[in-house]
Amino acid sequence: MAFATTVRVRYADTDAMGVVYHANYLVWFEVGRNELMRSWEMPYVQFEEKGILVPVVEANIHWRFPARYDDLLRVEACLAELSPAKLKFAYRIVRDSDGKLLCDGFTLHGFMSREVRPMALPKAAPDLYEALMKKIEPRG
Amino acid sequence: MAFATTVRVRYADTDAMGVVYHANYLVWFEVGRNELMRSWEMPYVQFEEKGILVPVVEANIHWRFPARYDDLLRVEACLAELSPAKLKFAYRIVRDSDGKLLCDGFTLHGFMSREVRPMALPKAAPDLYEALMKKIEPRG
Amino acid sequence: MAFATTVRVRYADTDAMGVVYHANYLVWFEVGRNELMRSWEMPYVQFEEKGILVPVVEANIHWRFPARYDDLLRVEACLAELSPAKLKFAYRIVRDSDGKLLCDGFTLHGFMSREVRPMALPKAAPDLYEALMKKIEPRG
Amino acid sequence: MAFATTVRVRYADTDAMGVVYHANYLVWFEVGRNELMRSWEMPYVQFEEKGILVPVVEANIHWRFPARYDDLLRVEACLAELSPAKLKFAYRIVRDSDGKLLCDGFTLHGFMSREVRPMALPKAAPDLYEALMKKIEPRG
Q1: In a domain, D32, yes or no
Q2: Tens-place pLDDT, residues A73-89
Q3: Closest approach of chain A CAs to the CA of D127, in angstroms?
Q4: Ramachandran class of D116: left when φ > 0, alpha when ψ lies in -120 to 50, beta otherwise
């Protein structure tokens, strides 16, 4: 994937197995897509300012190898798919020191109004839809 | 304290020291005061429905002894102080199996409007203020 | 599913969209399988005491409808599949007041030694494997 | 304070009031002291490698003004006090855009063995005690 940001594992992220608690990878996926969108100069807050929420509707996650306290991780993210109603981000989380793959997965998001009703992005914000179309990186 | 509710320690709550991560006790304080208010038939949502937010403005916490995965904990909570602008809850978290004190502390809360401006509860909701006055348990 | 436990949505679980932050459903999946195993009188701690860790290796989650602060949720869980190396739990999270389905999904877990090496449960703990076999609920 | 690091507010950090959930500031205090110690070339992991745990035993926190989603925050941290048995960190969390103070507080930590017994740092690791002495910044 073309984009990456880093996170440092906090004590708060770990659990009594001595490794990172699995649900935290979903939070790092959020960090990844958020920083990816900022890198496009289309930060997620810009969607919300236009009244477009983009909640997660599905996720699939594979945990390959555990991360530990104080590890520096590289969160790779890309826009894998886009349709008028949905978009899909793919992620890879690797250990920065040696590039070992720890976790990968995707999240699928719907475009929703503030009343949490589905909306068609090309109608609601054609400029954003246009711009997103150019960011698709189909093979991750 | 007169009131107690229970929580079970989740893997998510623990950290790589093998014990509960310290910040989670603040979340259990929330559970304690929330269930305390429900037991009064004055659930916190009722405040919000009247446009009164009650955010935390100060906290003090002592961690005495660690809790571990799967421990059943008793969260004791009481209303320790009340003024027109603020209220203070006190807490004790003890291990249910043997009553050992694990953590105690207090949280201080301000009455705020939706615009996060301080408000005087006796003016905004005299009935709630009246009712809260009767719930003070000064010595915990 | 035959088994259910309940959780109350905490302020800590919500986010600025006014609903529950998606990653917290994974934590409630943990609560569900933990209480399911306790109901079998095979609590997860018993596995760890025998040196068997059961970390999550894959998850799939569908978020159908948002939960809100103070909602009471019913977490249904069942053992969907079992093999010598892995087990799979399925979950449904529904709003207790009206039974509305909010979230469903599964988690796949591997049997691992303390050194995080895969192990065969029938060899490591034939009694636990036997007992788990009887708990499979294939259609959820 | 002489040292600062930054954190970006995640959706995961916010709550249904539209602002950051209060307990997360304790996690950012952890980030602050962790990066402070790394800046000294005395990362916290180095303590653990010598068998010295440094758990939090007390905290006091004032929440002054709310942080919001996507805010960039500056976490200032310093070593405020040191004794053979304890050390105290002080913190200030300010909004990076305008320097507004959002939260301040301290955490008090004890030096403990792996068996969670108090220990005297000058005995257990005189070099670390010596080095820490030079880092005290009494007035924050």
Answers
A1: yes
A2: 999 999 999 999 999 99
A3: 23
A4: left
Q: Do B30 and C45 touch (CB under 8 A)?
A: no
Angstrom distances, CA of residue B15 to CA of A9, B74, B94, C12, D55: 12, 20, 19, 18, 11
Instruction: Tell me the whole-structure pTM to 2 decimals.
Output: 0.97
Helix, strand, coil % in chain B, rounded to nearest 5: 25, 35, 35
What's the one-letter identity of residue B101? L
Please state the domain count of chain D. Answer: 1
Residue D126: partners with Cβ closer than 8 Å, 6 or more residues away: none
Asked whether the beta carbons of D109 and D86 are under 8 A apart, the reply is: yes
Amino acid at D16: A
Is C27 at the interface with chain B, CB within 8 A? yes
Q: Which of B78, B61, B75 is nearest to B22 (CA)?
A: B61
| Segments of chain C assigned E as strands | 3-8, 56-63, 72-82, 86-95, 101-110
- What is the C-alpha separation between A39 and A140, in angstroms, rounded? 17
Q: Is residue A71 a part of any domain in this protein?
A: yes
Q: Tokens standing for C81?
A: 């599949």
Question: Is D60 an 8 Å CB contact of chain B?
Answer: yes
Instruction: Using CA coordinates, name the residue in chain B closest to A23.
Output: B12
pLDDT in tens, C50-87: 999 999 999 999 999 999 999 999 999 999 999 999 99
* CB A62, CB A104: distance < 8 Å: yes
Q: Which two tokens stand for residue C17?
A: 């969209």
Query: Does the active-site annotation cover B15?
Result: yes
DSSP code, position B19: S
Q: Which of C65, C71, C41, C51 is nearest to C113 (CA)?
A: C51
Q: Which amino acid is at B72?
A: L
Residue B8 β-bridge partners: B72
> Residue A127: in which H helix or E strand, if any?
helix A126-133
Give the nearest partner residue to C10 out of B11, B30, B69, using CB atoms: B30
Residue B74: give the domain boundaries: 3-133
In a domain, D138, yes or no: no
What ipTM was assigned to the predicted interfaces of this complex?
Answer: 0.95
| Residues linked to residue D75 through DSSP beta bridges, in sequence order | D5, D93
Kindly report the CATH number assigned to the domain that includes residue A124.
3.10.129.10
Q: Could you give phi then psi for residue A97, rounded to 5 degrees?
A: -65, -35
Contact of B104 with B62, CB cutoff 8 Å? yes
From C15, C71, C96, C98, active-site residue: C15
Instruction: Give the tokens for residue C72.
Output: 């009471």
* Contact status, residue D53 vs residue D116, Cβ threshold 8 Å: yes
Q: Are B77 and B137 in contact (CB under 8 A)?
A: no
Residues 6+ apart with CB under 8 A from A87: A54, A79, A81, A108, A109, A111, A132
The band of C116, judged by pLDDT with boundaries at 50, 70 and 90, is confident
| B77 half-sphere exposure, CB direction, 13 A CA radius | 24
The answer to whether position C52 is within a domain reads: yes
Contact D92, D99 (CB under 8 A): no
